[in-house]
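Hi support team,

I'm filing this because I wasn't sure whether my run with adenosine-5'-diphosphate finished correctly. The job status page said complete, but I'd like someone to confirm that the output block is well-formed before I use it downstream. Pasting the exact inputs I used:
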Amino acid sequence: MRLIGPNCLGIVNTAAHLNASFLPHHPVQGRVALMSQSGAIAAALLQRLDVSMFVSVGNKADVSSNDLLQCWEDDPHTDVIALYLESFGNPRKFVRIARRVGARKPVLLVKSGRGEAGGRAVRSHTAAAATPDVAVDALVRAAGVIRLDSVPELIDTARLLAFQPLPRGSRVAVVGNSGGPEAMAADACERRGLTVPELPSGLLHARAAAALGNPVDLTADATAAELGSAVRAVAAVPDVDAVLVVYTPPFGSGLEETRRAIAEAAKEAGKTVLACVVGHDGLIGGRVPSYAFPEQAVQALARAVRYAEWRRTPEPVAIPVPVDREAGRQVVAAALEAHPQGGWLSPEATARLLSCYGVTLTESAEACGPDEAARAAARVGFPVVLKAVGPVHKSDVGGVRLDLRTEDELRHAYHEMSERIGPAMTGAIVQPMLPAGVEMIVGGVNYPVFGPLVMAGMGGVTADLLADRAFRVPPVTDPAGMLDELRCAPLLHGYRGSPAVDVKSLEDQLIRIGRLLEDLPQVAELDLNPVIVTTGGATTVDARIRVAPAQAPPTALLRRLR
Ligand code: ADP
Ligand code: MG
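And here is everything the job wrote out:
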């Protein structure tokens, strides 16, 4: 016997005419299967969404979202799967299943507890473990899951995906009887990465006042028949992937006749057709989703376009990199043997671990005292950099001196530094001064529940301030795409007279850090900041790695809870 709940609202199967819930209203049959971890949210959703099945999972003692995904994968009455979640039982498994199911049916997700306050409400509500939101985002995104910020967005998107074919591309024609809302629609398209291409001239013959480029404004006088034939004409243009009809009632032939004309035209279009009937949410002719505001329609369309793109993209494969996993494991094991509770690795162990994974660290010579520093500098060659060992954030305490050109300068800097920092400074390292480049940060974490996550971002001392970052669940299969998500990406490709740097080397380092985090779950956090990228390569000048005893994988954790 399987158990649903406890602390739930029951189940509904409209195809089987089963309503075993205490919903306040009667659910209507539709193509969307809905799972909700909150009864209240489910009740609100079901008032506006027609469903094939509905399951209120409550505290998920037995049946989980993973079970339901698998059940709905083959359900002939379900075309779209919608989930409201407050916690993941086994996120890695969720991603595996969602990716497979998502290749056949769109999976929509609203996951609450994004911020601190939301997280608190969720924990006290269902005793869900806090799960960092970026990890959720990266995980579900890799699986093609359509993550939405709110329940209205979920409804809007589900209605489009349930009733219309997936858009083949991102080119939208806007057709309607009202210039203002049409202009808003076109603006919203551009904001969301959709294009509104110019339509071929001579396509439409309309009254003198109309604009026929795109948006097509047939003006308030346009009849239902005129609007219908305009929809047919623009849908036939090869450069158009979707048609958005914007109608403001009661002009032209009135609401009912126009709705009929839109439904008829959509039937023959063979492309995605959706409507904004200003002020009216609903479904036209059982086929065309209609939205009260243009931005709502465009947002739903943009989600569908992105999902369709994901479906067309072949599943990414890991890029192989040669690493010495066994040697890396030994470095971590030795550190944990010395400090079973974990902690920061020494500079020496850090360098060794990184070298096992082919991560390029600049030459670093440990030096205790000014004499040793002078000898180290002679070895690495002036100009050099002197850094304090001991403080975690060295710059903050005056623990980094750059571009020291002579032995005198170095000795002087050493004395000054040790005086200023005092006993917190346990030694120093001397590095060659690297030529200027683009300073990036490459980092990663291993979450006990979510597993590893890799980060790339703008680096240097302003890294936290600017917070320009991108995340991936390893293996990192698209390092170039990851870097291009950053606002600072133009700096890498050559910006205002500065040369394009060796981005390929940086990409290689990202893949390797992903591999390290995957192989070694005991690496709790890792920070290469900065990686200095020049035309000659990507070199890390500052690295920090914290190890911690690895925690039980989520499945074992769950079993213990049961
Ligand atoms: P921390 O992050 O602890 O303050 P870093 O070692 O990252 O110390 O040094 C701070 C800054 O100094 C870096 O962001 C970088 O701009 C510069 N820097 C550090 N080491 C070098 C080096 N070897 N060559 C050139 N610049 C360096
Ligand atoms: Mg640093």
